[in-house]
Structures are given as C-alpha cells and as structure tokens.
Amino acid sequence: MRYMIQIHESEEGFSVSCPGLPGCWSQGNSEAEALANIKIAIQEYLEAVKATLPSGELREIEVAV
To answer: How many whole angstroms separate alpha carbon 44 and alpha carbon 38?
Structure first.
C-alpha cells in the first residue's frame, strides 16, 4: 500500500506524519531515518486498528489517485 506523508525539517531533525491515518507520526535525526520510522509507525497503526475491529470478514482494496 502507498500512503501520503508530510515531512517537516527543524533544528532537531525531521518529523513526519501520515494525514490519512490520524495520530500516526514519527521522527528521526535524518530524513532517511524519519522515513524508515514512519513506515514502522504505519504498520503498527494498521495492526492496532485491525485488532480493534469486530469479528467479520476483512478485505483489502487498492485505490489509485
């Protein structure tokens, strides 16, 4: 899957968020580190959401923008 992210540089490094997943964000000392960290954050976010869903059939769809 592909997710749009927003990255911000500051004196302290880089922060990155995923606007499509509210509250999903990470940071890093370098841009590369921040990007690697947001990938992990997105995976963990989706696992947490999946764990809270009521039982039933889950499916995935792909949407092109």
So the answer is: 10
